[in-house]
Amino acid sequence: MKRVVAGLIQKDGKLLVCQRTRYQTMPLKWEFPGGKIEEREQPRDALRRELDEELGILATVGDEIARIRHEYPNRTMVELRFFLVREYQGEVENLIFNDIQWSKLRDLPKYDFLEADLTLVRDLAAGKLL
Questions:
Q1: What is the spatial distance between Cα 102 and Cα 96, in angstroms, rounded to a whole number?
Q2: pLDDT per residue as tens digits for the range 44-71
Q3: Residue 94: Cβ within 10 Å count
Q4: Which CATH topology does 2-125 take?
Q5: Is the dihedral of CA 2, 68, 24, 86 positive or negative?
Q6: Which residues pair with 3 in a beta bridge?
Q7: Element (H, E) at 122
Q8: CA–CA separation, 32 and 20 (whole Å)
Q9: pTM
Q10: What tens digit of pLDDT does each residue of 11-36 get?
Q11: What pLDDT shows up at residue 76?
């Protein structure tokens, strides 16, 4: 099983959403920033590392908001852990994505998110988690 962390980065009542490049698996889908947990790495440490690599920020990783297990049609299993990030140092820069946007919670369903994120996206848009 692939273990993944993602950050729900909040600013001014909005969340940061990121669009994968056309060269990645599941091209041009939207997601929350983050990535794989490396061997012997703690989830929060992995998220801090990923957010530095992807966005150039030093994040203060808060509470775990959701944990989702999902199996894709190709039989790939992922466990996603979503953490709240309310504070960070530095300015958000798009270092690897096709696009990044700050979205109001209610507007999240308008983005073409990865299949594994859809339940979380619906819950966030409905005001159930934040």
A1: 16
A2: 999 999 999 999 999 999 999 999 999 9
A3: 14
A4: Nucleoside Triphosphate Pyrophosphohydrolase (3.90.79)
A5: negative
A6: 79
A7: helix 118-125
A8: 10
A9: 0.96
A10: 999 999 999 999 999 999 999 999 99
A11: 87
